């Protein structure tokens, strides 16, 4: 195997409950990461040297700061005496700063893909530990299952959800996750819930009131989408979403969205397209 092309699926947070703040500044939370069948694509080609080349570079992100490159460097560092190199080509479909895991998913696909391409034989637990160093959302993409998550998002338990269709909208704004999590008005002490409570309809987002207040475009997108189905914020945003029973209805709603809002339709899945592509089920 010298070349592989892998999906980098999006995720949405079906709910997000912030239950506390740790001494190191990270927040304790509960959420459900719902994987989608839509996302970026990453093509990896093995090289005979130890060089890593990523194309194209993302606007405003230096190549060495890109999570894909950082993931690859982490794997290289574990095997300093091997000639591990690759050309990496990214097709970017997911908006940056949308709260749907684009960069984290790209990094996870790089970790899982290069592990296979280079024959390193690391298991998903080992790859997930590397991913956690890159970001709290990376492990869920490495493990490849829609999951109930606690801690800072790294304590994962696979969960089966209905494979609904979702309309995901990206308002014309960029929400800073750091700003939201550092804001004094963020609700940080929501009461923990059990999985059963979530399944019975416990599906709020602790960040949503603050994000709606600070970002009027997010508020407008939620109001518009709520006409068709209960609309929610994913993560800290800016993306919002709503679920529908079938693809046709979701496509019809998405087609009506305001001109200044990007969007896409995707199906919720319980196993990542990345893992299906590599036969990891």
Automatic annotation (TrEMBL):
GO BP annotation list: isopentenyl diphosphate biosynthetic process, methylerythritol 4-phosphate pathway; terpenoid biosynthetic process
Q: Which GO terms describe its molecular function?
A: 4-(cytidine 5'-diphospho)-2-C-methyl-D-erythritol kinase activity; ATP binding
Q: Which reaction does it catalyse?
A: 4-CDP-2-C-methyl-D-erythritol + ATP = 4-CDP-2-C-methyl-D-erythritol 2-phosphate + ADP + H(+)
- Top-level division of the source organism's lineage: Bacteria
**Domain named GHMP kinase C-terminal: residues:** 196-256
Q: Where is the active site?
A: 11, 137
- Which is an annotated Pfam family here? GHMP_kinases_C
What InterPro entries is this protein classified in?
GHMP_kinase_C_dom (IPR013750), GHMP_kinase_C_sf (IPR036554), GHMP_kinase_N_dom (IPR006204), IspE (IPR004424), Ribosomal_Su5_D2-typ_SF (IPR020568), Ribsml_uS5_D2-typ_fold_subgr (IPR014721)
| Alphabetical UniProt keywords | ATP-binding, Isoprene biosynthesis, Kinase, Nucleotide-binding, Transferase
Q: What is its EC number?
A: 2.7.1.148
Electron transport keyword on record: no
Biological or metabolic pathway of the protein: Isoprenoid biosynthesis; isopentenyl diphosphate biosynthesis via DXP pathway; isopentenyl diphosphate from 1-deoxy-D-xylulose 5-phosphate: step 3/6
Describe the function of this protein. Answer: Catalyzes the phosphorylation of the position 2 hydroxy group of 4-diphosphocytidyl-2C-methyl-D-erythritol.
Member of which family? Belongs to the GHMP kinase family. IspE subfamily.
Annotated protein name in UniProt: 4-diphosphocytidyl-2-C-methyl-D-erythritol kinase
């Amino acid at each position: 195997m010298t070349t592989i092309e892998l999906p980098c699926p999006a995720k949405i947070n079906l709910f997000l409950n912030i239950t506390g703040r740790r001494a190191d500044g990270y927040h304790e939370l509960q959420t459900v990461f719902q994987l989608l069948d839509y996302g970026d694509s990453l093509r990896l080609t093995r090289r005979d040297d130890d060089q890593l080349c990523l194309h194209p570079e993302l606007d405003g992100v230096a190549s060495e700061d890109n999570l894909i490159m950082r993931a690859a460097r982490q794997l290289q560092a574990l095997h300093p005496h091997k000639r591990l190199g690759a050309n990496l080509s990214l097709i970017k479909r997911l908006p940056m700063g949308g709260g749907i895991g684009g960069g984290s998913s790209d990094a996870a696909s790089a970790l899982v893909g290069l592990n296979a391409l280079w024959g390193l034989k690391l298991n998903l637990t080992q790859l997930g530990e590397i991913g956690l160093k890159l970001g709290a959302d990376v492990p869920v993409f490495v493990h490849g299952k829609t999951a109930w998550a606690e801690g800072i998002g790294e304590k994962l338990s696979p969960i089966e959800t209905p494979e609904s269709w979702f309309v995901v909208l990206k308002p014309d704004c960029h929400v800073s996750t750091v700003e939201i999590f550092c804001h004094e008005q963020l609700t940080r002490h929501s009461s923990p819930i059990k999985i059963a409570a979530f399944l019975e309809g416990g599906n709020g987002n602790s960040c949503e009131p603050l994000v709606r207040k600070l970002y009027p475009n997010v508020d407008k997108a939620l109001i518009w989408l709520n006409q068709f189905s209960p609309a929610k914020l994913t993560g800290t945003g800016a993306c919002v979403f709503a679920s529908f029973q079938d693809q046709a209805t979701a496509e019809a709603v998405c087609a009506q969205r305001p001109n200044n809002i990007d969007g896409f339709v995707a199906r919720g899945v319980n196993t990542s397209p990345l893992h299906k592509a590599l036969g990891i089920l």
